[in-house]
Amino acid sequence: MSDADRTSGSSSPQPPPSETPQLPVPPVAGEIFGERLAQAIRYTELLATAGVERGLIGPRETDRLWQRHVLNCAVIAEAVPADADVVDVGSGAGLPGIPLALARSDVRVELLEPMERRCLFLQEVIAALDLESQVSVRRGRAPDAGIGPDGRRFGVVVARAVAPLERLGAILLPMLQPDGVMLAMRGSRILAELQDARGSLGAQGWHPVDVVVCGEGRVDEPSRVLRAVRAAELARAESKKGRGDGERHDGRQVRRTARDSRRSREAGRDRPTRGQSRST
């Protein structure tokens, strides 16, 4: 355990002004955050100081916090419906949940994070940014959060590099309402990842599934996002489903289902064509 971990419960994420790095604010930040630009600047400063000190952000990431992290996460607001209840799974330092909340005052965001020291950091950041009425923190794991009598169902679930798509879809499905939307931020290989996982995602109950690019023409590093909708028919099917029918109690798809799904679709799997590189 580091010194930062030992003191995370009592220290504040607000460093002395002399220690706050001067990070140039990209002009587009004003367009994206509007009246909340000052809060976005403060959040970026907290990531560069307390976030680095507590091991939530790598020290080499400081110079690219705006483009690679804050703005890159904020632009996924383009894919979030109005007035949505959003859960950010594996929130870590609050990415993408906090930039999303700052960019969209109409949405409510819950930051789901299993590690206590990270939850403490998130609570301190929320207080520092005066976001208590819009953003909350919950300590827990995604497989458990949407299950049982206390499980909550959300309209949108967002995740940033949490798990492979096949596994991620199975984990997040129980957390969504029928017709709820999964937004999974991925890297440059998103189309290849989706091609491999498409059969399993369909078998789990995701339809339609496509890829959207958020922030194109606005930020230097647009976000590639897998957008998948939880099929409404799944709600009725779940009531008849037993634990031996392919879905475990924790929402994870058993390997047999994914394997059979891949085999059944292998021969007829269509490939992306020109003009269709962003959807499947």
Note down, in words, how this protein is organized.
The chain has helices at residues 3-7, 28-33, 37-53, 65-74, 97-103, 116-128, 142-145, 165-172, 190-204, 233-238, 255-266, and strands spanning 85-89, 108-113, 135-139, 154-160, 176-186, 206-214, 223-230. It is of the alpha/beta class and 280 residues long. The chain has a single domain (25-266), classed as Vaccinia Virus protein VP39 (Rossmann fold, 3-Layer(aba) Sandwich), CATH 3.40.50.150. The chain has a 7-stranded mixed beta sheet with strand order 3-2-1-4-5-7-6, sandwiched between helices. The longest helix is centred in the first third of the chain and has 17 residues, at 37-53.
What is the overall silhouette?
globular
* Terminal-residue CA separation: 45 Å
Number of helices: 11
Strand percentage lies at: 15-25%
* pLDDT averaged over residues: 82
Radius of gyration: 19 Å
What would you call the structural class? Answer: alpha/beta
Instruction: Report the CATH architecture.
Output: 3-Layer(aba) Sandwich
Please give the oligomerization state of what you see. Answer: single chain
The biggest beta sheet reads:
7 strands, mixed
